[in-house]
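[step 3/7] inverse_fold.run input=structure_tokens len=575
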């Protein structure tokens, strides 16, 4: 017994646990290798006629259209990052450094904002600011007698604006902890010497917060590069392409064209390199954070800035953000679902509300999508919890150097956007293991990508909870004769149950609303509900897409409330 405890906690690592923990890292490695392997081949992939060549790379990097796609992606990503920070950063400062009332409600607004799918926001903003059908444009045309709508949301900047609205909640989560931990003594010293609040923020607060802000910028920028749902909803129909939508068209060509997997592999490899460089920069910024530490155990005394009447103005801005980013888009989606055809909202128009689109939708397709979504929601969170708990337990409890490798591997999915994982899985299933393992077209290929993609969040949440449990409890259980599995079940699981349930419900929600991987991997048999919405939207059936979205929202709403409630209890954070 003593040797087992010594083996587990003093450097030795159980081979079975280590194999289980290393499994998702091996999957990621295989997906990345498959991407590069396909990128250097030409011809009928997976057959002897395929030849190794670099012509795919010369074709991509010598194509002026690809250059324009890269430029569009940069403009979109920069716009999204700026908008997200312009909204999320001030709200984080208001919550953590001022006497703003109603902070619990504000936390609820921002936390729930993370769970509202970006596809909802994009669909809603299409109905608001599309150059042809957008309500805002039609009102402006009628009001000023214009020939065309003056606002075009289907541009890289317009799409970046909508993406920024969707990512503002993430910017808030990433920066609020930084403001909470900042010692106000330097600001108070500046105020004693006569500085105004504006000058203090500019000369003291923001320089101190610079590492946290820069880390948030890099993190959001990495997400923006490979975002698919909002550019697809807003840009594809208007022929405005980003890297993610460009890859989609190469995999799913329109008309009689054939998929160009080699080109897809090259673009995917390029995105892996960019995401990897940004992640290394992100890690470098975090490692240098100690240079800006101002919180010590001596004399730390948080103080809040009184807002007074400015609280009303602050709340007006916050509610304005909630309206334009979540509430109005959702209301317009519900309106479009109930209207026979889309016209500007009015009392007269609302008299035409009907269930036409609900009766007319392909219920066999919706049922198939619902069935596959339910399977994913049932399987993926449990698999994520099993793998994440194994990895976290080894990271926190083991003294082996292997834990550093596991920690890096657990964070790796955060560096690889889902579109990359999905393309890697698609290429692997089609050209590497297709003859032996029939993954292509099954719901399990989507499940594998979802499991790998959610590990980073789950392990970070469980690491924090396990660190709070003293290992003496486990050692006492081992001495009493319990096995490792029974110790985990009888001792650890009850103690970290709120975090386990919170991770489970958050993962289930993210799986339920996920679009990107489903769109790239779904075919007839393994289509999911978000992919059903996408199929209706892409074919021009906006009202039917809105009807399915409304049904999904009715199921999503109570789950979001449960996730928020358990998230508060377990203090799960994404940063």
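[step 3/7] decode complete -> sequence:
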């Amino acid at each position: 017994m003593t040797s087992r405890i010594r083996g587990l906690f003093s450097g030795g690592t159980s081979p079975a646990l280590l194999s289980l923990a290393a499994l998702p890292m091996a999957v990621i490695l295989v997906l990345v290798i498959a991407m590069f392997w396909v990128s250097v081949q030409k011809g009928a992939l997976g057959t002897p006629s395929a030849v190794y060549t670099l012509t795919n790379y010369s074709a991509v990097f010598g194509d002026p259209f690809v250059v324009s796609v890269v430029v569009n992606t940069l403009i979109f990503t920069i716009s999204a990052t700026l908008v997200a920070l312009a909204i999320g950063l001030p709200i984080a400062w208001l919550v953590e450094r001022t006497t703003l009332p109603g902070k619990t409600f504000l936390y609820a607004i921002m936390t729930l904002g993370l769970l509202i799918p970006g596809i909802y926001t994009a669909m809603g903003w299409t109905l608001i600011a599309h150059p042809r059908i957008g309500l805002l444009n039609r009102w402006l045309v009628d009001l000023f007698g214009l020939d065309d709508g003056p606002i075009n949301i289907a541009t890289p900047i317009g799409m970046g604006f909508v993406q920024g609205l969707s990512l503002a909640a993430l910017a808030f989560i990433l920066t609020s902890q930084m403001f909470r931990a900042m010692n106000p003594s330097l600001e108070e010293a500046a105020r004693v010497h006569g500085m105004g609040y504006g000058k203090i923020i500019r000369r003291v607060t923001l320089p101190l917060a610079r590492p946290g802000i820069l880390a948030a910028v890099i993190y959001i920028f990495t997400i923006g590069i490979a975002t698919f749902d909002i550019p697809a909803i807003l840009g594809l129909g208007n022929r405005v392409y980003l890297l993610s939508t460009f890859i989609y068209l190469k995999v799913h060509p329109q008309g009689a064209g054939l998929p160009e997997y080699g080109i897809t592999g090259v673009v995917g490899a390029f995105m892996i390199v960019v995401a990897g460089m940004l992640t290394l920069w992100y890690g470098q910024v975090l490692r240098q954070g100690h240079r800006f530490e101002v919180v010590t155990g001596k004399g730390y005394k948080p103080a809040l800035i009184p807002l007074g009447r400015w609280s009303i103005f602050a709340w007006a801005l916050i509610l304005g953000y909630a309206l334009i980013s979540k509430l109005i888009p959702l209301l317009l989606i519900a309106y479009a679902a109930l209207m026979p055809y889309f016209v500007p909202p009015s009392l007269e128009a609302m008299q035409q509300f009907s269930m036409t689109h609900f009766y007319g939708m392909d219920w066999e397709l919706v049922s198939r999508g619902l069935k596959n979504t339910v399977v994913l929601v049932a399987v993926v969170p449990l698999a994520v919890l099993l793998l994440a708990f194994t990895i976290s337990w080894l990271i926190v409890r083991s003294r082996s150097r292997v834990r550093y490798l596991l920690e890096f591997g657990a964070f790796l999915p955060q560096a690889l956007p889902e579109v990359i994982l999905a393309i890697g899985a698609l290429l692997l299933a089609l050209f590497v293991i297709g003859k032996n393992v029939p993954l292509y077209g099954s719901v399990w290929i989507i499940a594998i990508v979802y499991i790998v993609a959610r590990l980073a969040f789950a392990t970070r949440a469980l690491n924090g909870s396990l660190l709070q449990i003293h290992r003496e409890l486990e050692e006492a259980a081992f001495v009493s004769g319990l096995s490792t599995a029974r110790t985990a079940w009888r001792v650890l699981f009850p103690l970290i149950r709120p975090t386990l349930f919170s991770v489970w419900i958050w993962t289930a929600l993210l799986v339920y609303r996920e679009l990107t991987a489903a769109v790239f991997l779904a075919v007839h048999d393994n289509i999911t509900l978000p992919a059903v919405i996408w199929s209706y939207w892409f074919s021009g059936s906006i009202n039917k897409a809105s009807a399915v979205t409304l049904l999904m929202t009715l199921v999503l709403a109570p789950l979001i409330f449960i996730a928020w409630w358990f998230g508060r209890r377990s203090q799960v954070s994404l940063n």
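[step 4/7] annotate
Residues 363-397 form the longest helix (35 residues).
The chain has 26 helices and two strands.
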